[in-house]
Each structure stands twice: as structure tokens, then as C-alpha cells.
Automatic annotation (TrEMBL):
Keywords, alphabetical: Cytoplasmic vesicle, Endosome, Membrane, Synapse, Transmembrane, Transmembrane helix, Zinc
Gene3D superfamilies given in the database record: Cation efflux protein transmembrane domain (1.20.1510.10)
Mode of membrane association: Multi-pass membrane protein
Protein family: Belongs to the TMEM163 family.
UniProt superkingdom: Bacteria
Location of this chain's protein in the cell: Cytoplasmic vesicle, Secretory vesicle, Synaptic vesicle membrane; Early endosome membrane
Record-annotated membrane-spanning stretches: 21-40, 46-67, 79-101, 113-130, 151-175
Organism: Streptomyces lannensis
Record carries keyword Transcription: no
InterPro entries assigned: Cation_efflux_TM (IPR058533), Cation_efflux_TMD_sf (IPR027469), Tmem163 (IPR026765)
Domain Cation efflux protein transmembrane positions: 87-195
Tagged with keyword Transmembrane helix: yes
Protein name: Cation transporter
């Protein structure tokens, strides 16, 4: 490898770290914002998205380990823990969303939740694009995969946003629980991919 190639690779690795730390920081703040919004609105979807953000923090840490060259075994163990986290999230959301629909429990409107999920969707889409480009340039499948997870996180934020808007603007209280089911589907898909070794 030439000096120029090495310098380019180091620059790309630094960019990968920056993207992961930005994702990590956003999700740490997001857990607090979403907890406040979920409690105030009694929203299953916001609570589930907050738990998803906690799991995404774990995913970012796994990629940071990998970029640091911390070893394949440690990364594999980290991914399995993330898989268990997604499985628990799916069970929680399935039970909660079903209970909400069965009892007719109506969440309140959530301007904070609407604002946060709208901005989060935009931020996650931008971070996902950066990770895809950087992961491709580095030929790093872990960063590329985590970029797809970040893209899905943006799509989930959009799904939760839609549920909140339908509840707030059209009075469709069940849309919050429906958004919870979207998160269940995503979580189960992640569990299957992780334990099948797709990551």
C-alpha cells in the first residue's frame, strides 16, 4: 500500500468513526427525548422507538469496535447481544400494541414526538448515506451493514411519525399501535438476520 493509499484509508476510517459517534450521540439524546414524549403522550410507538434507539447505540458500539480492530469474536458477541435486545423489543411491542388495540387505549397528541421523529428521520437518512459511501470506499461490510440499519432507523422514524400524525390530525388513535407493529416486524427481521449470520 502506498503512502497516499494509507492516508486515504486513514481519512475514511476517521470519517467512519465520526459517522458512528454522530449516530451514537443522536440516539443517546433521543432516548431522553423519546422517554419524555412517550410518558407524556402514553404512546406505545414512541416508547418502542426509544427502546430501538437504545439497541441502535449497541449497534454503533459494535461498529466502533470493528473499526478499532478489536477482533472478530468480540464483534460477534456484540451482534448476538443486539439480536437478543431486538427479540425482547419485539415481544414488548407485540404485547403492548395488542393490549392497546384490545382495550381501545387512546394515546394523547405529542408535538414533541412529532418534531423529534421528523428531524430524526432526516438525520438518519443523511448518516446512512454517509456510512454507505464510506463503507463502500473502505470495503468494510460491517460499516455498510450498519449503514443499512441506520437507513431502516430513518424509515422507522418516518413510520412512527406517520402514526403520530394520523392520531393527532385525524383522530386515528389506533395508528400509534399500528406503528408499534411496524417496529415489531423490523425487530424480528433483525433478529433473524443476526442469528442467521447475515450481519
Amino acid at each position: 500500500m502506498t503512502g497516499t493509499d494509507d492516508a486515504t484509508r486513514q481519512r475514511l476510517v476517521r470519517r467512519g468513526f465520526a459517522l458512528e459517534y454522530a449516530t451514537l450521540g443522536w440516539n443517546v439524546i433521543g432516548i431522553v427525548v423519546l422517554a419524555v414524549a412517550a410518558i407524556a403522550a402514553r404512546s406505545v410507538a414512541l416508547a418502542g422507538f426509544g427502546l430501538d434507539s437504545l439497541i441502535e447505540i449497541g449497534a454503533s458500539i459494535v461498529v466502533i469496535w470493528e473499526l478499532s480492530g478489536s477482533g472478530e469474536d468480540r464483534r460477534r458477541r456484540g451482534l448476538k447481544l443486539i439480536g437478543v435486545g431486538f427479540a425482547l423489543l419485539a415481544v414488548y411491542l407485540l404485547a403492548q400494541s395488542t393490549w392497546v388495540l384490545a382495550t381501545g387505549f387512546r394515546p394523547h397528541h405529542s408535538p414533541l414526538g412529532i418534531g423529534w421523529t421528523a428531524v430524526t428521520a432526516a438525520v438518519m437518512f443523511a448518516l446512512a448515506a454517509g456510512k454507505a459511501r464510506t463503507g463502500t470506499a473502505l470495503d468494510n461490510p460491517v460499516l455498510q451493514t450498519e449503514g443499512r440499519v441506520t437507513l431502516i432507523d430513518g424509515l422507522l422514524a418516518a413510520a412512527v411519525l406517520l402514526g403520530l400524525l394520523l392520531n393527532s390530525l385525524a383522530g386515528l388513535w389506533w395508528a400509534d399501535a399500528a406503528a408499534g407493529y411496524v417496529l415489531v416486524y423490523y425487530a424480528l427481521r433483525e433478529v433473524m438476520e443476526i442469528f442467521a449470520g447475515a450481519h
